[in-house]
Specification:
Distance between the termini: 40 Å
Order of helices and strands: EEEEEEEEEEE
Largest sheet: 7 strands, mixed
Radius of gyration: 14 Å
Strand content: over 45%
């Protein structure tokens, strides 16, 4: 099984920065892509950024120019650098690994941006 563990969330003032990490472990052969999603209270979970096995990257329009997704294949870790944070970025951020068999999700890490 695949395990995903997020870290790096917390409280930050508007305009500040955070870096989220997603460490993966377990036995699997193919991961199509990994990414970050977020879910605010009462809202549907939405895509933030994804990076494919080939290195292609997609961002939500709302975070373009502010967030950067990256990966360290040796460490099996995906990062999300978040700059110029806004209160509307407040949400639980989830790491996702999309494998050929099924998707896997982390438990989430809370990001709160105060005005």
């Amino acid at each position: 099984q695949v395990q995903l563990v997020e870290s790096g969330g917390g409280l930050v003032q508007a305009g500040g920065s955070l870096r989220l990490s997603c460490a993966s472990s377990g036995r699997f052969y193919i991961i199509n892509q990994m990414g970050w999603y977020r879910q605010a209270p009462g809202k549907q979970r939405e895509l933030v950024a994804v990076i494919t096995s080939g290195g292609n990257i997609n961002y939500a329009d709302s975070v373009k120019g502010r967030f950067t997704i990256s990966r360290d294949n040796a460490k099996k870790t995906v990062y999300l650098q978040m700059n110029s944070l806004k209160p509307e970025d407040t949400a639980v951020y989830y790491c996702n690994a999309d494998t050929v068999a099924k998707p896997y999700w982390g438990q989430g890490t809370q990001v709160t941006v105060s005005s």
